[in-house]
Amino acid sequence: MTTESLSLFDADREALTTILDGEPRYRLDQLWKGLYVDFAEPKDITSLPASLRTRLSETLPTALEMVTESSTSDGNTVKWLWRLPDGASVETVLMHYPDRSTVCVSTQAGCAMACGFCATGQGGFERNLTVGEIVEQVVRAARRANEGPTPRRVSNIVFMGMGEPMANYDRMIGAVHRIHGDIGISARHLTISTVGIIPGIRRLTDEPLPVNLAVSLHAANDELRDELVPINKRYPLSDLYDACEDYLKVKNRRLSFEWAMIADVNDRPSDARELAAATRRLRAHVNLIPLNDTPGWPTTGSSPAKVKEFADQLLDLGANVTVRANRGNDIDAACGQLRANHNGPTVTEVPARIERIKRSPGATD
Ligand code: SAH
């Protein structure tokens, strides 16, 4: 544990052993089972004596205080807003599908990447989450999934909530190891999503665990990507593709490209051609996400007809494509809508260069 490790879920097995020093050895197994197998609330781990539960909660409190829990009407998407001990807030989303239950975790409070169309980016950066704050999101969601008439087991984790995982690399990878080793979710069911921070992709390439990599591409030429994903100026596409290629060579895992479809900005035939070329080179899978509304970005998402047309163009060009179902829109839990404290800017100007791109002759070719 580091000095910032304040929460129960920052404590790995070794740290819990130290804390339980003086207790019979089986207490550790009871506590461990309660936390990571049953996903019980610490106060409900009744195999432990009440005095020990009190001592634990005093020395190692949990980090996530629930502010709100919202659920879609079908109950298949649940979003939480949590308050952290220092008052920062983050969100977590649980999504049930017929064949799996996926938790979307945050790695930072806020985000410094400043992608204009993303609500988290619009609000700016607050701080990195600790390993325990990331792990606890999974535990809380798994506890909720277990409840009710049809208990479900969380099988997949996507690092696609608030923040840029690669900008909080050490804690993100610490959480990956804990989620894999302690909660027991296969590395193949973990997906790290990045705006394209190349040193992070390279470090992930050297990790032993075969996790999936998703790159939020949104544009496959540098001019447009510089506008949509500002970090592209530092890590341009040719270098990004090289890093992805090396990841694939070493890991042999599926790479996916996320593409939020913005009407008349990145849904043109030229965009499909550029994207398909990158996709063929990297054998990547494209996830098309119709742009979700956010308060700070007035441009709209592509129409369903346009999304289908774009997907068909990509297929014709030999790309693998999925159109992502838009989960949780009615509770602002969909991609790019996580915003936590809702005190960011309201509608801002569309960057002038994007307006120019929209009006340029190439826009309708
Ligand atoms: N920072 C990481 C992790 C966040 S993942 C990353 O960018 O990959 C969240 C995903 O939702 C990213 O692919 C992001 O680009 C996408 N997204 C952001 N704003 C969106 C919006 N308004 N509509 C649809 N997708 C959006």
Describe this structure in words.
This protein has two domains: about 15-60, no CATH class; about 65-360, Aldolase class I (TIM Barrel, Alpha-Beta Barrel), CATH 3.20.20.70. The protein has about 375 residues and is of the alpha/beta class. The longest helix has 16 residues, at about 130-145. It is built from twelve helices and twelve strands. It has a ten-stranded mixed β-sheet. A two-stranded antiparallel ribbon has the order 5-6. The chain starts with 12 loop residues before the first helix and ends in a 6-residue tail after the last helix. The chain binds S-adenosyl-L-homocysteine (SAH). The site of S-adenosyl-L-homocysteine has 18 residues, from strand 8 and strand 10.
